[in-house]
Structures are given as structure tokens and as C-alpha cells.
Design brief:
elongated; 8 helices
């Protein structure tokens, strides 16, 4: 998040709870996975290996229920390789458990462990996501305070909500 923007929100909307929502967090993870996939595919091609990552973008980025049968088969093939793209995908899938927690205490424990595991993965784009999640931990945990609901609330001065957050009244 852009710090000057957060400062204005904190000053102007003291009763609001700022929530970094699921959609935008998962979008950042997908961008990281795609970056890993692109760079790994280029490296494999440059080193003369079989192009196993060719046509793999959407099987790595789509949710399981939205994959075609062909994409599901391709993903199963990829799972046989120890690729950074596959490990990034598995980290993202593991993170999905975060949204199932009902207790902020357990969620923060999971978030810390997930970030530690991701930092140890040595996959730079995913490490950047983990660093960002750590930096914005309180805003992410507000998701539990909001009970998973979001509202694109109103902001003064015609600012409108930023592209990666939602606002809800603090009374929720």
C-alpha cells in the first residue's frame, strides 16, 4: 500500500476499518507465480530443456473449479517436476487456508508460518509477496474484524477507494 494514502485515510476516516481483501492479495500472488513461470520457462528454453511450462499459464493461475480438463491434466503433469513455478503454485494453494480461519489468533499464526516458509523458498517474487503480507499484517487481519465482508465505501475529497483495498465502518 502507498503510505501517504494510508496516512490520509487514517486522518480523515478515524472510524473506518481498512481491509486488504482476498481478491487483491490473491491477485498479487498470481502475478508472482506468473513472473516465476515466465522466467523459468525462458531459462529452461535457454538451457535446452524440454518446454514443460509451455501452455501452463492458466493451469497455474486458475482456481481448480475454473480449470478445463486439459488444464487439469497439464497441471498434473507439471506436479511431477521440481520447478519453482510448481512450488509457487503450491505456496499459493496453501495460503488459501488463511481464509478458512475464524479466529484472528490462529490466522496470524498461520500467516507468520506461511511467510517464513515462503521466505525460505528462495523464490524471489513469492518472497516479495510474503514481505508485503508481513508489512500489512494488521490490514490483512482486519478481514476477520470485518467478518470477510467488504464495502467500497465513500471517501471525502473525491478520492475513492484505492485499487487494492476496501473500507467498512468500524462498527461492524
Amino acid at each position: 500500500m502507498w503510505q501517504p494514502y494510508l496516512n490520509v485515510i487514517a486522518e480523515q476516516l478515524k472510524q473506518a476499518v481498512h481491509v486488504l481483501d482476498r481478491f487483491h492479495i490473491m491477485k498479487k500472488m498470481n502475478e508472482a507465480i506468473d513472473k516465476v513461470r515466465r522466467s523459468e520457462a525462458a531459462r529452461l528454453e535457454r538451457d535446452g530443456y524440454e518446454p514443460v511450462l509451455k501452455h501452463s499459464r492458466w493451469c497455474l493461475l486458475k482456481r481448480p473449479e475454473n480449470r478445463t480438463e486439459k488444464q487439469t491434466v497439464k497441471l498434473a503433469e507439471l506436479m511431477q517436476y521440481n520447478l519453482q513455478s510448481v512450488r509457487s503454485y503450491l505456496l499459493r494453494e496453501d495460503f488459501q487456508r488463511f481464509w478458512e480461519y475464524t479466529s484472528p489468533g490462529w490466522a496470524v499464526k498461520f500467516l507468520g508460518e506461511w511467510c517464513t516458509r515462503t521466505m525460505r523458498s528462495k523464490i524471489e517474487p513469492m518472497k516479495k509477496v510474503a514481505i508485503s503480507l508481513r508489512e500489512h499484517r494488521d490490514l490483512i487481519l482486519n478481514w476477520f474484524r470485518a467478518k470477510g465482508t467488504v464495502s467500497a465505501g465513500f471517501l471525502p475529497f473525491g478520492l475513492g477507494p484505492p485499487h487494492n483495498s476496501r473500507f467498512i465502518p468500524s462498527s461492524i
